[in-house]
From TrEMBL:
Residues 2-78 form the Pyrroline-5-carboxylate reductase catalytic N-terminal domain. It comes from Paraprevotella clara. Residues 126-251 form the DUF2520 domain. This is Glutamyl-tRNA reductase. Gene3D superfamilies: NAD(P)-binding Rossmann-like Domain, ProC-like, C-terminal domain. InterPro entries: 6-PGluconate_DH-like_C_sf, DUF2520, NAD(P)-bd_dom_sf, P5C_Rdtase_cat_N, TM1727-like_C_sf. PANTHER family: CONSERVED HYPOTHETICAL ALANINE AND LEUCINE RICH PROTEIN. Transmembrane segments: none annotated.
Length: 267
């Protein structure tokens, strides 16, 4: 398929390269920042533009991969000029109907993964969730998604939003905790790589166990001796101390609920 990219960020870069390797042709990359458009266009072997009026006609697919806050504005400017081409966005939390009234054939292609421009990923293993405005549009969207991923599934806007919420907990919040841990270590000159085996084993365990059963640490048993000592180390940092206490309460509450459900099942 012939593709025009609207956006040149992390996801557009990784998905764009995957589609390019799969044999699809990129006609153009648009970004509001010319340097970003040119960087991705160079990787995909196509022209770049930062001019909305210069977005080329004649593509099979226009993929909008931009921040949620600017998606509707770009759709309203570009989609009406795409004719019978397929218009897709890649956002986890935005509705498919953002295209309604602007495009004839439209849908969503959402790869659930964290992306960075220069960190290659194996797209074949990434689950891609699709939604479309009509059966023929769904077939084309699935064809495009299946050319890069072995895990393609249809999912409604409402379920995809819940999926995206879960991903924020499982990825974004977890990475923020890594950043906090790195800061704690850095104050004493301890390199963050001492955490790698712990991080890797924690991730491996949830492949084998439900996350609530894989949970360890003082908060599971609500060990106030340990928790109070650690909270005291955060006395000068009220936000982090509050986060520590809130996370500990949440961990303990889930552990208690899991234990109660287990007893109920066994009775």
């Amino acid at each position: 398929m012939k593709i025009v990219w609207i956006g040149a960020g992390n996801l557009a870069t990784q998905l764009g390269e995957a589609l390019h390797r799969a044999g699809h042709e990129t006609l153009q990359v648009f970004s509001r920042t010319m340097a970003s458009a040119e960087a991705l266009a160079e990787r995909l072997g196509c022209p770049a533009t930062d001019d909305l009026d210069a977005v080329v006609p004649g593509a099979d697919v226009y993929i909008f991969s931009v921040k949620d806050g600017v998606l509707e504005g770009l759709v309203s400017r570009i989609a009406p000029r795409t004719g019978d081409a397929l218009c897709l966005h890649t956002a986890g939390s935005m509705p498919m109907d953002v295209f309604r009234g602007h495009a004839r054939r439209y849908g969503v292609l959402y790869p659930m993964q964290t992306f960075s421009k220069d960190c290659p990923v194996d797209f074949k293993e990434i689950p891609v969730f699709v939604e479309a405005s009509a059966p023929d549009v769904l077939a084309q969207t699935e064809q495009l998604a299946c050319s890069v991923s072995d895990r393609v599934e249809e999912m409604s806007t409402e379920r995809r939003r819940r999926l995206h919420l879960a991903a924020v907990f499982a990825c974004n919040f977890v990475n923020h905790c890594y950043a906090l841990a790195a800061d704690v270590l850095g104050r004493d000159g301890i390199p963050f790589d001492v955490m790698w085996p712990l991080i890797d084993e924690t991730a491996r365990k949830v492949h084998r166990l439900p996350p609530v059963e894989a949970q360890t640490g003082p908060a599971v048993r609500y060990d106030r001796n340990v928790m109070d000592r650690q909270c005291a180390m955060l006395d000068g940092e009220p936000e982090r101390k509050a986060l520590y206490e809130m996370m500990s309460r949440s961990i303990h509450a889930l552990a208690l609920r899991n234990e109660a459900e287990r007893k109920e099942t066994n009775d």
